[in-house]
Structures are given as structure tokens and as C-alpha cells.
Amino acid sequence: MASNTSTRTEIEALLQFIHSSTEEAMSEYEKTGHGIPTSDSTVSHPLDNKPGALALRKAIRTLEAACEQLCTTLAQPMHTLVNRAMPYEAPCLKFVAEERIADILEASPNGVKGMHIDDIATSTQNKFASDKVGQVMLLLSTRGCFREVSKDVYANNRISLSLLSTNPISSTIALLSGELLQGVTMLHEAMVHPEYAFSRAGNRTGYSYLLRNEMPNASYFDWINANRFQRSMVGFSQISGSSEAVLQVYPWDSALSSRKDFLTFCDVGSGPGAVALSLSKFYTDKFRVTLQDLSEPLEQAKTVWSVEYPKADVAFVPMDFLKESPVAGQDFYFLSHIVHDWPDSDAVTILTNVAKAMSDTSRAILHEVVLEHVQGEPDEEGLGSNEKANPPLLPNYGSGNVRPYNYNIVRCVSKSQFPSLEDDAQIPYHPLAHARNGTFNNGERTRETFILLG
């Protein structure tokens, strides 16, 4: 057991992290000239929907990590465990997103004065019981989403404005708190079911177990093709800051100056092509873009590009990346959150097909989450790793960086497993089978497993 002195020193260090990261976050808000927002603000702050905001994100990562670690250290373990076993806020978020409660409040003539739960309930399409709507709103307002103006009277605030149906974030919230959460609740049931526990088939995952009555023998991708997946992915891009991050981090200016007047850029498995769109807008006339995906996503992408940047130099070329290679000889091949969706055997196929299309000067960019273990291995080979937090914070930032680890569990129940040697003696040895037949079965990958994949 640690001494009282060393524990006090760690706690004081955590308090310093909380103070310094709070100062950094406030500074980022003040730089905009709009001041520091309040949770009860009735308008969005300019930074609220800014995809990049990397300095703010880093400050919040440290702040969340330190706050959670401090509470976990000082609270009774039973207090911590019970709180974590009650994710009931998520179904409430699904309810208000699906029923467009934020839209109802936004349209109310009372505005910031709020709307009584009786009126909210009767304004919904399904005319819910007002007392049940009130229970939902009370929990969410207690957690800072919506504002209880007076007893049973609610108004939007800065948090709930992101749930407006015009914001793609609302679709993302509905997906995460609905179907994906339901799939995760089947984790134990699928792991003990004889047909699912050791199956490698795409239609025998934990998510397939959830759908077994509604869509027999369906895979995760069978479901997403029939639902709101594409719109929710736009929201995911905003939440993660994907477009801005790629724009800011990669040395595009250097690439342009060292090659030619323009760059060819192939987005493999593009979806709407959010990153390519940002690049095309920022570097006017400097990118010739090819979006490649299945036909249906490309039709949706055409609509997005025609509205967002109609003069872009962009081609839409259908392709199944498991069966064919992308267009040949591009300067850049970009795969954004593609590899993590597939078991290792399919990921190798995708990357091999890309490699076949590349020239000697082509570059492939994989835009992926890279997980770190809580206590990672030292970087003895000099291959680099994620930025590590300073002690006494957990090296992987703990709760300040928990979202990728949550996604990892989602992928555990929505994808098939990579075969292990114990499963089938006929399967040839592959180091990834050992590297990932534990915590990271077919989910987000660590640095080491990405290296092995190559």
C-alpha cells in the first residue's frame, strides 16, 4: 500500500493538472473573442462545432483524465462501480434525439423561458405521458443537457442544441445510445452462446445475436446499409475532428511544393469524403480527388459535394475494396477509419489491393485510432507511439481518452473474430492471431498490431 505522503503528493499533482488544463481550455475560448461559455447558455459558442480545436481537445483530455482519476482515488469503490453500472443517461439521449425534443423547445414561442413537460409531451409525435417525459428530462438536465428553468419547465441550453435534428451529431447520438448500446449489452450472451462464442463469421457476432429475430443471419453491415449509418458518420467526423486534424497535422504544403502544381488524392472507402472535401476547399485547385466506395454511399457523396463545393475537381468511382484495387498511380491513397472495421485477413486484402495500385512515389495514409494499454511497453524500437500523459495521470490518459476504448467494445460485438490457432489447427501461423486474441479481438488496434498488420 502506498504511503500517505506519496498518495497526497499524487493527489496534489492531479489538482495541478486540473488547474493548468482548465486555464488552457479557458484561454482557447477567450482567443475567439467570444469569451468562456456557460453550460446554461442558450446559443452555441463558435468553438462548439469547430471540427479541429486541437488545443482545446488536448486540454479537455487532461482535465477529464485528472478529474476522473481523482474521484476514483477518493471515492469508495462501491460508489464508483455503481455509478459506472448505470448508463441510463444513454437511452434518455436516444429518446430525446428520436423524438426531436430539442427541436420542439427551439420552436416554442416561449423561447428561453422554457416549456412545461405537459406541452412538450403533447408536441411529440407519439403524445407521450408527460410524467415519463419529465423523468427523462430531469435526468438529462441534472447531467447538464437541457436546462430546467423552473419545476417541470425546460429549455434548450448549449449542450442540447447539438441534438437539433439539423445537426448530424443528433444521428450519431441516436446510433450510439440506441442500436450500438443494445448490441454491447449482448456481449456476455454472445460470448457464452455455442453458435456465436467462437464463430469467425460476420453474421455470428454479438451484434448479430441482438438482430437474430429481426434480421436472421444478418451481419453488422447488413444492418447499417438499411439504417442511418451514413448521416451518423458525418456526426462522428465532427466529434473526432477528423477533417481538421488531417488538414492540420500532415505536411500538405511540403507535399505540394516537392511534387507538382496539384496532387491526386484517392479516398478509399470514402463515404461522403469529408477529409477530401476539406482539403479541396482549403487548397483551391490543388487536389484532384477520386472518391471510391460502393455505389450507394457514392450517390450520397455526390449530393454532399454538389452542395458543399460544386466546383471541386472530384470523380466518383464505384469499387468494392475487398475485390478490386482503386484507381492506379495516385499521389495519395487515404483510408479513414476503414481498417478497424475489418478482421485482419480482410484488412490485409484491402491494403494489398491498395498496394497494387500504388506507384513508386505514391503514399498511403491510414487515419485510424491507435490504442495504448494503460501500462504500455517502452518504445525500444523507436517506432513512435501516442502521446503519453505525465504522471500521476495514467499513461493513456484514462477517462480523458476513453472514447476509443468504448468503440473497441462496440467492435467486439459487431465484427467477427480473427481465428486463433486453438480454433483451427489448419490455419497457418500468423503473429496477429496471438497479438489480438485477447483484449483487442477485432476492434481498434494498438501500435504493435498495426505494425504486424503491415
Automatic annotation (TrEMBL):
InterPro entries: COMT-like, COMT_C, SAM-dependent_MTases_sf, WH-like_DNA-bd_sf, WH_DNA-bd_sf
A Pfam family this chain is assigned to: Methyltransf_2
Region Disordered: start-end pairs: 376-397
Example GO molecular function: O-methyltransferase activity
This protein's UniProt keywords: Methyltransferase, S-adenosyl-L-methionine, Transferase
Keyword Kinase: no
GO biological process: methylation
Domain of life: Eukaryota
Domain O-methyltransferase C-terminal: 261-375
Stored PANTHER family: O-METHYLTRANSFERASE CICE, PUTATIVE (AFU_ORTHOLOGUE AFUA_4G14580)-RELATED
Stated name of the protein: O-methyltransferase C-terminal domain-containing protein
